[in-house]
Amino acid sequence: MEDRELVAQAQGGERAALDELLRRHYDRIFAICRRIAGNEADAADATQEALMAIVRGLPKFDNRSKFSTWSYRVATNACLDELRRRKRRPTPALVDEHEGWADQQVDDSTPAFDEQLGIRDELQTALNQLPEEFRAPVVLRDCGGLDYAEIAETLGIPPGTVRSRIARGRTKLAEILHKGNHPTGDERQNN
Amino acid sequence: MNPLPPNADDLVSAYFDAEASPDEIVTVESSPELMARVESLRALTSQLSTPAAPPAAQKEAHLAAALGAFDELFGGQTTSEPAVATPTVAAVPMTSAAPDPVVQDSVTHPPGTTSTVSSFEAAQSRRQARKPRRFNAGIIAAAAAALLLVVALALVGIGGRGGDDAATSASDGVQAGSAESVDTAGDSTDDAIDDGDSAGSASGVSEPDQDQRAGAPAPDSPAIEAAEAAPESDDSMSDDSMSDDSMAMDDEAMEEAASDEGDAIDEPAEPDEAQSAPAEDNAFTGADLYRTNYFLGEFDTIADLQAELDMLTSDDVALRLDQGQQLLFPRCQEAVLELSQSQGPTLIAAASLEGTDVEVHRLLGARNDQTTYIVTADGCELIDTLP
């Protein structure tokens, strides 16, 4: 059964339809949250928030966009909200968005959150070094499959800015992965 | 070999995403080096696009919580299937989010414990059933005006004919016609409200159009749809009720009455209507909001209101804040301490929450974090804050 039919049934009160709909998209929603939030704990919170927002917003969803697109958009907003809440306290793996991201590095003396959890995800650790304004569009494009216009709408920025941020974000991501995720002290001094 | 263009990364990225212009496509495809970069990019993005598998227990807990919220929203379920795994919401780690009334309720009312079958349409109908109070006042006033007009015309007719029999006959006709007029007008109002509901129920959570992206008011936004629901009642009035041939009114009187009724509905806050329902207009100090795009609708719970607020795009919020500078109701912003410290406008919406008129203000923190304040329109008392 297609998403559209499930949405209609869920809007009519069919619990099983909503169950199927959410199961179908849960993994992708979680993946987006995981990539944007940067760690499992925040991703879990954001995913739950996203599911709640989807349920609350479902009555107003009118199928003019695909359910997947809409749900990823909701998930992204939930993740960004989660990030903003968490920014009120220090987060080792994230850089300060108000400083130049090109010369930001993770402090070697403080293990990244992922490392504390024993998670070895080089790509995620590299992503965590991108500021939110670059990370979110890259994740929405490459993980969520949204086009530039949809990303622009989701993030509230012009499509041209989306394009440049995705390009710069990808370039920087490749550089980080190429160098290795954990620069030495010498590298930081050079920066 | 041609040197790479300075914006090579941008070109390659846009080409890979199928967002490049025709000229850019030619540029990339004519350069082996750029095409090699495209392949490198493909390898990178394939890693990103591979979703990490979520923990199964977490997934089930999240889904159960969402379904619990769904049950709470509906008040029951229509399927005969048993509820999926029933870990309570409390089992799901929520380390930072503010307590959500929907979630909390779902803990106290596990899925499947209620038998009432409901639907979103029914819930919306119940919500909207209380909405037209302001329009009802206008309808009553219009119907009364129409009745007076009919009576006056009848009396003129009686004077012209001069006979007792004719007077009795005309009077009977007027009574029958006027009573029917009021009833029919009432029915058509309900129809008009239903029409408004239909429009509202299809409001745009979905893809915004180009105007929205450019920051223009969203034509399909819930707020605007709510505002647009009023004129529809005018059409409904003239089409449904006023074309009834059985009414004892001549065409001229009918047109005049219809015109009066239409005016009353189009301009619900005109002084003459305000006199007919002073309590309604004075109860909400920000009454002007009802005639603007700020009015979101009527909501039974804060969660419902929050869901509607969630649907506002950032552009929409920005537009509302900009417009707020030009409107006349900074009163609550001044009255609430946190809001008064804002350097800019904070009002983003008005609504009716559980029958109470409220203003919704949004305050941006120093680090771009947002807090939404819901305050009573009358008295500016803080009802709740939303993260």
Could you explain how this protein is built, in words?
The complex is a heterodimer of chains A (191) and B (387). Chain A is 66% helix and 0% strand. With 191 residues, chain A is mostly helical. Chain A has one domain: Rna Polymerase Sigma Factor, Chain: A, CATH 1.10.1740. The C terminus of chain A is likely disordered. About 49% of the residues of chain B have low confidence. Helix content of chain B is 57%, strand content 9%. Chain B has four domains: 42 residues, no CATH class; 63 residues; 159 residues, no CATH class; 100 residues, no CATH class. Chain B is elongated, with a radius of gyration of 29 Å. In chain B, a hairpin with a 2-residue loop joins strand 2 and strand 3. Chain B has a five-stranded mixed beta sheet. Chain B contains 17 helices and five strands. In chain B, helix 1 crosses helix 3, helix 6 packs across helix 8 and helix 8 packs antiparallel against helix 10. At the A-B interface, helix 2, helix 3, helix 4, helix 7 and helix 8 of A face helix 1, helix 3, helix 4, helix 6 and helix 14 of B.
Q: How many H/I helical runs of chain A?
A: 10
Main sheet overview of chain B: 5 strands, mixed
Cα-atom radius of gyration of chain A = 18 Å
Percent of residues of chain B in helical segments? 55-70%
Biggest chain pair interface: A-B, 79 and 81 residues
What is the name of the CATH architecture of chain A? Orthogonal Bundle
Q: What form of chain B results from the Cα inertia axes?
A: elongated
Annotation field: number of helices of chain B:
17
- For the CA atoms, what is the radius of gyration of chain B? 29 Å
- Low-pLDDT parts of chain B are 79-138, 160-288
Counted beta strands of chain B: 5
What is the distance, rounded to the nearest whole angstrom, between the alpha carbons of the first and last residues of chain B?
A: 56 Å
- The portion of residues forming beta strands of chain A comes to under 5%
